[in-house]
Amino acid sequence: MKTREKGKIPARTSLLGFGCMRFPVNEDGKINRPETMKMLDYAYEHGVNYIDTAYPYHNYESEEVVGQWVATKPRDSFYLVTKSPTWMCKDIADFDRILEEQLTKLQTSYVDFYLLHALSRERWEHIKEMNLLPHLKSVLDSGKVRRIGFSFHDDYEVFEEILNAYDWDFCQIQFNYMDTEIQAGIRGYELAKSRNIPMTIMEPVKGGMLANVPDEIQAEFRRVHPDWSDASWALRWVGGHDNVQTVLSGMSTMEQVIDNVKTFSEIEPLNAEEQATIEQARQLFQARIQVPCTGCRYCMPCPFGLDIPKNFRLLNTAHVYNVQAAQKEGYDAMDVAAKASHCQKCGACKTKCPQHIDIPAEMEKVVREFEK
Ligand code: SF4
Ligand code: SF4
Q1: How many structural domains does the chain have?
Q2: DSSP letters along 142-159, please?
Q3: Site to substitute for ligand 2 among 289, 294, 359, 363, most atoms within 8 A of C-beta
Q4: CA–CA separation, 195 vs 334, rounded Å?
Q5: Are residues 346 and 276 in the same domain?
Q6: Does residue 198 contact residue 245 with C-beta atoms inside 8 Å?
Q7: Is residue 288 part of a domain?
């Protein structure tokens, strides 16, 4: 297993981290504990030492299951990671109370990496209102937490503000070869690198969408490396960034654990030909876009209640990543008034689109995709 040593408080972590949000589950939705223990053991025995859970994962069950596993191993032989659900805290006393609860569930007296979970503009404002940042020093001094960071889901500008507001030990972002221009993206990566703040990466295979790519892209991948899985291309691209401390994979099956362990045992930065293949894959993905909507929302609001960009996003994602069934589920769950079929063809949106998309005409494509 490849490892990296980074940070002000150095930690030599495995480049593959075990994300504990997609454990195998039983029919009742509860975690399949025997199978999960086998998967964690296999990963651990093959050098994975970064175990990443969070308070709400698996409907609040993940930390307890991870704690069951923690109790079977020497505590100093791995790094334990969890996250504070700050949106559930009305004040600092709540923050401290939840941390105590987490330590109990995890059967430990400390966590190695503690994150303020899934920060966005709204959550960041709440953290500031609680005046949480000055409290973090005493949390570190207590020894219950060894490093403080945050995970992030919002635009780059918010990321920059948060990164500059505190002396973070690390941070965690969504990053993969198709998501370099959204959220923190490549600019966020470069900013953290310039500040010597190591990064943990989530969604390296884009929630599984890069693990089973469309045929024409897979053919290119196989031409260069017949034995590399689609997921391993995505993982190698992320792992090639030197400010990355750990790449998280939320593994659900033993097969995935074995494949990921193999990938991260032999991983090397992509060479020029492999980088060119990733660039070609990006272009082939782009060519599958049905409507060139950027999600800018200049066309909104629609006087009849349509969510115009969401309709186009679902259509595009269905085609780009060959995930029609999942996107249809998303469409079916929308309010009737927000759906493409509710378009009254009034034309109020047409002149507002900087991409000159004939919105009412393109809504027909969405209806054909998801309602016919
Ligand atoms: S044409 Fe359709 S999408 Fe555009 S504003 Fe009118 S109802 Fe809304
Ligand atoms: S204005 Fe055009 S590009 Fe922007 S969200 Fe609306 S349809 Fe998409």
Answers
A1: 2
A2: TTSBS-EEEEE-S-HHHH
A3: 294
A4: 42
A5: no
A6: yes
A7: no
pLDDT tens track for 247-298: 999 889 999 999 899 989 988 889 999 999 999 999 998 888 899 887 878 8
In a domain, 293, yes or no: no
Q: What b-and-e string marks burial along 247-264, b requiring 16 or more CB atoms within 10 Å of the CB? A: bbbbbbeeebbebbbebb
Q: Is the CB of 304 under 6 A from ligand 1?
A: yes
Q: Contact 117/132 with Cβ under 8 angstroms?
A: no
> Is there an atom of ligand 1 within 6 Å of 26 CB?
no
Ligand 1, atom 3, lies closest to the CA of 343
Pairwise CA distance, residues 194 & 148, whole Å: 18
- Identify the domain containing residue 351 by its residue range: 308-371
CATH code, domain with 222? 3.20.20.100
The pLDDT tens digits for 112-167 are: 999 999 999 999 999 999 999 999 999 999 999 999 999 998 889 999 999 999 99
Are 63 and 116 part of one and the same domain?
Answer: yes
Q: Are residues 42 and 127 in the same domain?
A: yes
CA distances for 349 relative to 85, 302, 336, angstroms: 39, 7, 19
| Ligand 1 center–CA 339 separation, angstroms | 11
Proximal ligand: closest to the CA of 341: 1
